[in-house]
Amino acid sequence: TNRTFTMIKPDAVRNGHIGAILEQINAAGFRIVAMKYTRLSQEKAGAFYAVHRGRPFYDELVDFMSSGPIVAAILEKENAVADFRTLIGATNPEEAAEGTIRAKYATSIGENAVHGSDSDENADIEGSFHFAGTEIFA
Ligand code: GTP
Ligand code: MG
Q: Which has fewest Cβ within 10 Å: 8, 19, 36, 126?
């Protein structure tokens, strides 16, 4: 069993998809071990996506991710990182497989409904960015 980190992004929150997305995450066998409803400042969003600093879409990404509330969560499952990326689908919803969370709820490559960590190491870093140890209940 291991962990991944996710955010339901501001577009999906605004469009009323929190419940449906959490339902699909649970139905796929992920257990929520930490969760909060919060809003990222520009500074926090910039720090979270620091690996993308310098890319053409960075400013747009930081503005978008701080544009409204999000749901942040740590999820537990065997093979959590890879299985969660399969569940959410490709970054660009036009390329996301049918039935994936992004295929159903994303509006564009920028406003793509959910985040999923891309490695075990980043899952740990990103989970710690949002949650103290005392906020995680395995
Ligand atoms: P995350 O789970 O959010 O990390 O998405 P990802 O791993 O599928 O994609 P990546 O880490 O490469 O990019 C991070 C985020 O930047 C994406 O989810 C998009 O929101 C945004 N992004 C990536 N590429 C583009 C782009 O070409 N244009 C715009 N506007 N945003 C992009
Ligand atoms: Mg990524």
A: 19
